[in-house]
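User: Some background: our group keeps a shared notebook of sequences we're curious about, and every so often someone picks one and asks for a predicted structure to add to the entry. Today it's my turn. The entry only has the sequence so far, pasted here. Could you supply the structure so I can complete it?
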Amino acid sequence: MTILIQLILYCLLFTAMVRFAVRGGAIDGLYFYPRPVQERAIEIGLTTKEIMQKKRRIFMTEFYIVMLAALVLIIGLWNRVSGFKAAYLQALLFLEVMNVYDGIVIDKIWVGHSKFWLLPGCEDLPYVQTWGQVLKKRSILALIWMAGAALVAGIVVVIFKKARL
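Assistant: Of course. Here's the predicted structure to add to the notebook entry:
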């Protein structure tokens, strides 16, 4: 039951991070959109490529730091895991659940059914991923998260194995 609560909290943190990224409106998250939407938004003067890239760099840095720190703390501090295998399996579970959550809840439900994400002047362009695009992206990320889970497990072992000696 605890792991389910942790997974829900982790996904809520993910959602909060995305919402924080677009606190000034959907245009703040233009880097999330397909290239044709980005190009149109820049072309009609909603933003510039430089501003979009700067916002992307800032958000992605903050996002990876917060999500990594939360995951390391959940596994190492809350769950008291210090062995690599257990830490790897937990990290993989969290990362894969986050991956599916992002594809279904964020991409298909929130973006797909909320007018918030519709950019003025770009209404005629598709900005919601198709199921095929979601499956392809999530499949690729599933493989990437296998390596990411090893990195997280390594960090957990280094930090929490020493702390428990």
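Suggested note for the entry: Residues 42 and 53 are 12 Å apart (CA to CA). The chain has a mean pLDDT of 96.
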